[in-house]
Amino acid sequence: MLRGRARSVRSRIVLLLVPPVTALLVLWGVAATTTLRDSVRQSRAQTFTQKVLEPTDQVIAALQDERRMSLSALGDDATIGRAGFEAQREATDRARARFQTSAADEEVAGATRDATLQRMRRLAEMRGGLEPLRAEVDDRNLGRAEAMARYTEYIEMAAEIYDEVHSLDPQLVRQNRVLRTLDGARENLSREDALVTGALAAGRLSEDEHLQLVQFAGAHRFLYSDAARNLQGDYRVRYEQIVSGPEFRRFEELQNRLMEDGPSRGRPGVDIGAWHTATEAVDAQLAQLSSDIRAENTRRAGDEANAVLLRLALTGGLGLLAVIASILIAIRAGRRLIVESRAMAAAVDDFAQHRLPLINERARRGEWPLEEELPGGDGREGRDGGRFRVTEVDRIDRAFAQTQRAVVRAAENEARANQRLNEIFVTLARRNQSLLQRLLRMLETMQRGTEDPDELERLFELDALATRMRRHAEGLVILAGRPSGRTWADPVRMVDVARAAASEVEDYARVEVVSMGRTALLGPAVADTIHLVAELIENATVFSPPNTTVRVSGQAVAHGFVMEVEARGLGMAPEMMAQLNRLLATAPELDLDDSARLGLFVVAKLSARHGIKVTLRPSPYGGVTAIALIPQKLLAEPPDGSGPH
């Protein structure tokens, strides 16, 4: 039997260890493979530069030149030589052919990512769309704006090919971000060049073209300014030399002149040759700067990748040895630990999930002793009857058993203390009720025996004060779960219930009770319903301006009788109203930290006792309306008279 048990434990250990160990091996393999692939790819920096970056740069530059010349031809064929235009198209085709060769090269697949390789192959197949575009330019079947958009689409497709260098070097990451900004600025500058060249060739600058000119100029100025703030070292010096050089100043002078002159139907005040010379010089300088930054970034990424490969060779092997050692240690330790901890975990789970909630519930109801809910035994004294020495898990198990008993004793003591305190409060409240009842009878006798109006008014005030004190004493009894003390033998009309409730609040003079028909309430529910409605009326008077009235109305409905207490105050936030409605619907235990809502706790207790549904809703007058739905089982036909006992 023991051998069979050992085999069962061993199989369970294997089942427990195989998934995490397998996952660990898979994660280690994936991490090592991914790191190795990325490092190898980045280590081939020279291949990436020669067969990806340089062909892409050439294609973009050729497309930008062809775009400018195409817009010039659409403006006026006479502005460019046809031979030069065809030569540029041939240059674009050569750049594209070299690019196609690179995209098909097997070395490129190992030097770049799959996504970048897919973009290269998609761009290499663009000839089917470029030739029809050239034919439309030659036939002048499209406008300059459309030609600009279609050439720009190809250029943006080519710009997506630049492979992002993944690196942990913050400086390299920053330089790549700057490089992308410079590329965007160059493209905006090239678009501006093509736009202006076409407009100068046509001999007019339309309003739309002038607006685009301003947009392109603003875009490349912003992007170059943003990139300049992040350039460092020699690159910052080179950029400042470019923007302070005579070519750049000449370009900005021509650009500002075009923007200041605005749209024109006649020939703009800028010579097309001067514009082309200035922009070509500036673009060449900025293009060289971007190319040098990209080449350095690629080289540094390759150096970093080589270092990563070396670290991977060391840490990967050590990591594999560590994984194997961990497996062996886990098998040996798990074979003993799993068996011991499984029983203890089951005991803890049973106590937390089942026994502890039951103990708390019984303690709340005042039922004891509670130790019968605990499992027997004082913790294990070692497995197999002391045959093995007591382990740390055994000590934890024994400590847990002692903790269970301590929790039960604490729950019993707290329950007894709460019950004693509850009995004291109930006794004091009952005594106050008795004294206040005697006081109310004495005041009633004095009211009948006096004829002085002033004295009678003071007696009425004392009567109202004593009535409120009696209601507060009843509230303590109700919160303790006891009956309020007052009873009615006969049914009482609803309008009388509402009037009695209104008389138990301080500002009873502000309460308007509307006629409610002849529907009556059964005697056993009268006292609690009066108390419930009085709490709602008091809340309405307290949380509404003193110059407003509180209206109490009621009517019979299909499911019983609805009594509404409407306050014309400032209203309540929806979140707060939803919270109070949940409190009224669930009748929770009293929260001693929320003494401001004792009245609502009393309402919740009473509504749960009799099945009355109380809800709060916004009033049409801006305040809050409390609605109490009294069930049909509490209603009756009224007798000729009714009174308390």
Give your account of this protein's structure.
The model is unreliable at 1-9 and 377-389 (pLDDT under 50). Helices cover 72% and strands 6% of the residues. It has helices spanning 2-43, 45-75, 82-103, 106-111, 114-124, 127-139, 144-159, 170-202, 207-230, 233-244, 246-261, 272-365, 383-386, 392-449, 453-479, 494-502, 523-542, 574-586, 598-610, and strands at residues 492-493, 511-513, 520-521, 550-557, 560-567, 613-618, 624-631, 635-636. It is an alpha+beta fold. The protein is elongated.
SSE topology sketch:
Elements: H1 2-43, H2 45-75, H3 82-103, H4 106-111, H5 114-124, H6 127-139, H7 144-159, H8 170-202, H9 207-230, H10 233-244, H11 246-261, H12 272-365, H13 383-386, H14 392-449, H15 453-479, E1 492-493, H16 494-502, E2 511-513, E3 520-521, H17 523-542, E4 550-557, E5 560-567, H18 574-586, H19 598-610, E6 613-618, E7 624-631, E8 635-636
Parallel strand pairs: 2-4
Antiparallel strand pairs: 1-3, 3-8, 4-5, 5-7, 6-7
Helix pairs in contact: 1-12, 2-3, 2-7, 2-8, 2-12, 3-5, 7-8, 8-9, 8-12, 10-12, 11-12, 12-14, 14-15, 15-19, 16-17, 17-19, 18-19
